């Protein structure tokens, strides 16, 4: 199934990476990673840094799945309010989930600096806008619980929001610990680094059709009848992992994104902060390094690629209309647009770690709006599991 349609900006901006070879022999490794997107790349990074031999396979050209459709906003907040998550899984675990998301942004910056690669990482402030008066009361409640646990947050009332950002809403939550990146660029640079430095092998157009677990090893069989023998497999193929799981662990949604032509500075808001809102489905907004505005959202429950793509023109118009309500004087014009499919869980958390029905496998399923920060967390947990180190993955386990 195609994961996206249209012209993702990141592919046009960066150009296709040099393609990788297709597996045409039988081979073996310590860890086989299925999926060459940002999740697979980060898992490979942590494992390679620990001296573990890895092979990555992808049924597409490397890194061209959902990673190219990401708007790459890095926030410690997840799609479920902290106070709601506490009700679902308890205060200690909920707070820890939020804290780990915050830590993951700093971890990603450290990776980029250590490897001396370029992922267009930029620290940004973030605004979470109240869509109406009722939602502002919820933001007030959320503010209190975040302050209690010393998470970075500030509550702006209507007057403060208007004065500082010239946005007419009831209020917002503000923090200065968010970031943005170019996910596709970062992903390809991580892969290229470890291909040269760590012996990482990446195979494109190599589809796994069968997996057989034995006592101390696991075998993957490709569509072209080749085999890969490994000690462990990391499943990081995004929502396509549903083919491996009997139970339904997520809901598929489609999201729509537009990118403007380059804008004059005078039409960009203060701090060029990340913006999203309490309405569901919500709008999310960021800028790019060449002064473009990227706006996405208006998610729909996924049915099939044809129905998803048929809504694209209608969604583009609706996105522009909603954006103009926030910034009526901004002469935004569409230059690129696309839509993509992503998974979402009931509690907003990813699924990471082992599954009782799949011995010798780890899952790295960063569903939801925090896919990249969840990918960092997954890569750290899975590496610790493989190395036999103590790690608390219960928050993100299939048994939670």
Give a verbal description of the structure.
- The chain has ten helices and 20 strands.
- The protein is α/β, with parallel strands linked by helices and 400 residues long.
- It folds into two domains: 18-70 and 184-247 and 348-396, FAD/NAD(P)-binding domain (3-Layer(bba) Sandwich), CATH 3.50.50.60; 122-180 and 251-344, D-Amino Acid Oxidase, Chain A, domain 2 (2-Layer Sandwich).
- Strands 1, 5, 6, 7, 8, 14, 15, 16, 17 and 18 form a ten-stranded mixed β-sheet that branches. A six-stranded mixed β-sheet has the order 9-4-3-13-20-19, with helices on one face.
- It is globular and about 65 Å long.
- The mean pLDDT is 92.
- InterPro entries: FAD-dep_OxRdtase, FAD/NAD-bd_sf.
- This is FAD-binding oxidoreductase.
What labels would you give this structure?
single chain; 400 residues; alpha/beta; FAD/NAD(P)-binding domain; D-Amino Acid Oxidase, Chain A, domain 2; 2 domains; 10-stranded mixed sheet; 6-stranded mixed sheet; 10 helices; FAD/NAD-bd_sf; FAD-binding oxidoreductase; FAD-dep_OxRdtase
